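--- STAGE predict ---
source: upstream dedup step, 1 unique chain passed
mode: sequence only
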Amino acid sequence: MTRADAVSAVRNPLAFIAERWTPQQRTVQRAALISLAMTVCIVVTGGAVRLTGSGLGCPTWPKCTEDSLTATHEMGFHGAIEFGNRMLTYVLCAAVGWAIIAARSQKPMRRSLTRLGWVQFWLVMGNAVLGGIVVLVGLNPWTVAAHFLLSTALIAVAVTMWQRTREGDGDVRPLVGKAVVQLVWFLVAASVLLIAVGTIVTGSGPHAGDSSKVPRMGFDWETVSKLHAVFAWIVVTLTFALWFVLKAVDAPKGPLHRTRDLFLILLAQGAIGYVQYFTDLPEVLVGLHMFGSCVVWIGVMRVLLSLRERPYTTAGLPAQADDSQLSAV
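--- STAGE serialize ---
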């Protein structure tokens, strides 16, 4: 490497890498999928921190204690769990960074993919800071809820980037009519409300995230749980109605299959929800329900993104693309 190359690498490392490497389209897709998977993983491990009472295993932030950056032996199991979850943030950053590098290096460069990667990066940074605030305010349930909702926004962006790696940059072509699109947006809105009310259920319930006394939101847990169930049934009903409409109008297989998948996911998630409700919220089922929440939201986003296609253009065809990837999935 020459001195000029070294200077170029320092000034703009992404451009430096892009000049010397062209990833296959499959590599870009896998990078985006890994980023999405790591986002779900850190949500689930964050739930494990809460359900094991390790939320204040590291009692301060950004250090683990006033005198130590890492968890100490004296902090035991809870310190290890909390600090381990913090370390996963760096793994998530690496996954998002890899997705950004792969998207930036694709030829020709697709700015839309690179932007989605950077949006993920800044959401991760923002949520890391918010996570620190959660610790500093002693697991205030409203900040915990905001922490989860920001993770949900991160999942939405990650799903969108993953889908966009499987599409081109041509003009958007709708696959269904406007009435169907409006129905799906009602489904998205209801799903957002379902997840938001779910955070209130958690914030009002018994799993405060630490063995010490942590304030709750103050709502009656039984009431908000029933409200959560109402929104769940609304989402299920809208999904079934959407599937029925798509069958009636002979819609393409993409939207129809994604809607079917979402319906099955919702049934499984609902079954877990009712079992945990009638068994006094065992930690394992609560954690599984949190994972299910992520999967439901991914399913909703996939339904939304399946309503249109963006074909490849001749000028914008990614290098080394397979014929099997030339249509939206």
